[in-house]
Amino acid sequence: MHPYTILGLSACITAAMAQGGEILPQTSPAFLADVPRPTGVATSAPQKPYPTGALDMNFKLDLKKYPTTKEVPPVNNEEVKKAIAAIDWSKVPKIAPRKKLATGDLDVKSYDNIKDPDCWWSATICKQPKLSYIPPDYYQCPTAGDWGLNYDDGPLNPFHFDAPEEWAEPALYDALTKQNQTATLFYIGSYVVTYPTAAQRALNSGNVLCSHTWSHKQMTTLTNEQLVAEFYWSLKSIKEATGVTVKCWRPPFGDVDDRVRAIAHQMGMRTFIWDQDSFDWNIGPNTPTSKVDGYFEKWISARTGNQDNEHGHVTLQHELNADTVHNAIKWLPQVTKNFNVMPIHQCLDDTSPYWEESFVYPKRDGTVPANAATTNSTSTGTNSGETKDSTGNAGAVTSNESGASHLQLTVLPGMITLAMVYNFFM
User: Fold this and answer.
1) Under a CB-based contact definition with an 8 Å cutoff, are residues 15 and 420 in contact?
2) Which ranges of the sequence are coiled-coil (predicted)?
3) Residue from 169, 181, 172, 90 nearest 131 by CA
4) H or E stretch including 148?
5) What is the pLDDT of residues 231-278, one digit of tens each?
6) Residue 169: which of 344, 324, 354 has the closest Cα?
7) For residues 210 and 244, is the Cβ–Cβ distance under 8 A?
8) Residues 6+ apart with CB under 8 A from 22
9) C-alpha 276: how far from its chain's center?
10) Which of 277, 318, 281 is nearest to 295 (CA)?
């Protein structure tokens, strides 16, 4: 258990009591139960040595079974309808989809930023839902000095699949392996279906996969049904490509409110944000690489200068294009030298990032729970990753987070947060 950070214990307890209620139980999505596991992928947390080198470009998914890539999926699909029917809509607040300005930006000025009734991140950077049954967003590592390594927008597809460019995956994944690192990867479903072999490499190399939606749109602008469709196809693409059912997602642009959180939660996922932005996504005429370098220099200086001792960090980085991949590879050695680098899940002591019970990853201290199964990094099979209920019978896994293994109370300057860190299936 991490040490408590207690600055004003009475205020912290008051905040916890005010939150009240129990977290709404989550269940392994039944609508994904029939998605077959592919061959050539790990069936439990993979072991070293991890694979590197050229990918199997012959492995493909049937794109005819998926909606148009990079577009909001239609909601009249029969698979999506089943996912919609699985939602308890009484637990989804009646918040209207957000409007956009002519510029394409979100209309945040018409929102009540003071009361912030919907915990809308885009307007207020709110990470503690106003709904008592939805857990707070993860956005930082609890322990000072930890760096929750993560990358958005993958897997990075090549322009030419017959002769992949050197910056396309597995460039970043192989670089991580060579530097003895793994990361949390937030995947866009549209890019998974077009490059599933890269997603397989990421899983087999020890990285943790999460959803970044299907088409990377501002989620609060979508209808309830469109939200379900975005989540559904992202979840299915990852599972069909890799065999895992993810429990984590990150909203594109950080755009999330309690309506979106409630739907994601019922589809089996926890919301992950970040606490510092590298702005690598904006490298170009307005943001030269030197400006992004400056952020890393500042963060390293603060840590080495003993000015960064309150908590660890989740830094927003990307595998979006050649620039972001080169920047990530360039800075990883220095970040590793000055921080305790690990995937976000590891810094949170979350050893089970998937609904498949056989995947159990190391805790923050590097130890692996005694009940962890192990396979080599390219194991094949169909059964070792099946989900089970609390009686040990095959079926859906249910997680009631009110039965958390430990509770961490953290008070940060200017705000009080209640963060629960859970060890599932321990």
Assistant:
1) no
2) none
3) 90
4) strand 146-154
5) 999 999 999 999 999 999 999 999 999 999 999 999 999 999 999 999
6) 324
7) no
8) 132, 133, 400, 402
9) 16
10) 277
DSSP state at residue 51: P
Kindly give the pairing relationship between strand 248-249 and strand 270-271. parallel
98-154 pLDDT, tens digit per residue, is: 999 999 999 999 999 999 999 999 999 999 999 999 999 999 999 999 999 999 999
What domains can you pick out in the chain, each with its CATH number? 31-383 (3.20.20.370)
Q: State phi, psi for 62 to the nearest 5 degrees.
A: -80, 100
Q: Is the pTM of this model over 0.70?
A: yes
DSSP 74-140: PS--HHHHHHHHTS-GGGS---PPPPB-TTS-B--TTS-TTT-TT--HHHH---S-SSTTSPPPB-S
Instruction: Measure the N-to-C terminal CA separation of the chain; round to a whole number of Å.
Output: 13
Q: Return d(Cα 89, Cα 193) in angstroms, integer.
A: 29
Q: Which two tokens stand for residue 361?
A: 């990853």
Q: Which residues are catalytic?
A: 152, 318
User: Which residues have C-beta within 8 Å of that of residue 414, sequence separation ≥ 6?
Assistant: none
C-alpha 194/C-alpha 345 separation (Å) is 26
What torsion do the CA atoms of 361, 421, 389, 200 make, to the nearest 10 degrees?
Answer: -40
- Give the whole-angstrom CA distance, residue 400 versus residue 256: 23
Q: Please state, in angstroms and rounded to a whole number, the distance separating the CA atoms of residues 35 and 353.
A: 18
Q: How many CB atoms lie within 10 A of CB 82?
A: 13
**If we measure between CA atoms, which residue out of 411, 396, 417 comes closest to residue 28?**
396
CA distances from residue 267 to 23, 104, 390, 398 in whole angstroms, order as listed: 14, 28, 19, 12
